[in-house]
Each structure stands twice: as structure tokens, then as C-alpha cells.
Amino acid sequence: MNLEEKLAFLQTSSMEAARKEGNAIIDNYTTALQQVFEDHKVEAIRQSETRMKAESQNAKHQINQALAKTQLEIKRKEGRLQQHYKDQIFEEVHSLLRDFMQTDEYEDFLIKHIRKAMDFAGDEPLTIYLNASDEGRLSDIRDATRAPIKISREEFFGGIRAVIKGRNILIDNSLKTLIDNEYAKFIMIGGDGFA
Hints:
Blueprint lengths: L2 H98 L3 H18 L5 E4 L7 H8 L3 E3 L7 E6 L4 E6 H11 L10
Parallel strand pairs: 1-2
Antiparallel strand pairs: 1-3, 3-4
């Protein structure tokens, strides 16, 4: 081999060795970049799943808040409606009671409750009170019951109240108390969410 052939051979083998070494470096670098890419891809997927889960939870929370707010507003409206109808019902009750208080049956009602109070008191002294609106019936009721009856200074709509001082007992059969008790325990019952 002459010098030129030797140089050509040396150049070819050097180039091949350099090419092999360069290809090995590129392959290693490509493998490393591929691994970095895979790691980045896994991390990006994990972060996106975490973000989606957080956003999903946040959306559910916002929906639940909106639902709770809407339900609360519906309950408030329902409560106002129930209160409105309850008040209407008891206005009608007052009107019917006023009509009833103009009848002879009302006087019988008063006499019956006075006699019950007298029976309960037995021999103990008792004072019976009528509402001022019933003052016109006072003499007839006294005649029918022979009871110590006074007109009350306190308005109680109608009915009677009786006091047995010896036992510190108040018998309250006033229409005001009866209506107030019924009003306090009255609950609307019906379909579509009414209690």
C-alpha cells in the first residue's frame, strides 16, 4: 500500500469510527430525550388528571351551593306562602267566631264553661270573667248560672276565664287563648312538599 492508499484507508476508518461514535452519541441523546419526553408526558397526564379532578370537585361544589341556595329560597317562599294561607285561614276563623258570638249557641257555650269551672272549683271561691264584648249577656248568664261574674278589663275576644284564688288556678277558656294555641300548633299538610 502506498501512502495515498494508507491515507485514504486511515481517513475512511477515522470517518467510520467518528460516524459510529457520533451515531452512538445521537442514539444515547435520542434515548435520553425520549425518556425525558415520556417522563414529561406521564407528569403532564398526572397533572391534567389532578386538575380535572379538582375542577370537577369545584364544579360539583358550585352546583351543590347553587342547589342549596335554590332549595333555601324555595323553602322561604313556601314558608311565606304557608304563613299567608295560615293567616287567611285564621282570619276566616275569627270571622266565623264573630258570627258564632251573635248566636244563642254562644251563650249556651259560655254557660256550659262557667258550670264546668264551678264544678271544678267545688266549694272554693271562684271569680268568673267575661270579655267586655259580652257585657250585654251578663245578666242572663248570671241568672242561668248563679255565678260571681265580672267583666274583664283585659281583652280576650270571647269565652270565659275563671280564677280560683285559693289554689292559684286560672281556667282559661277564652277564645283568644284557644285560637292562639291552635295557631301555634297549626301546620299546613298537603302535597308537593307541604309539611
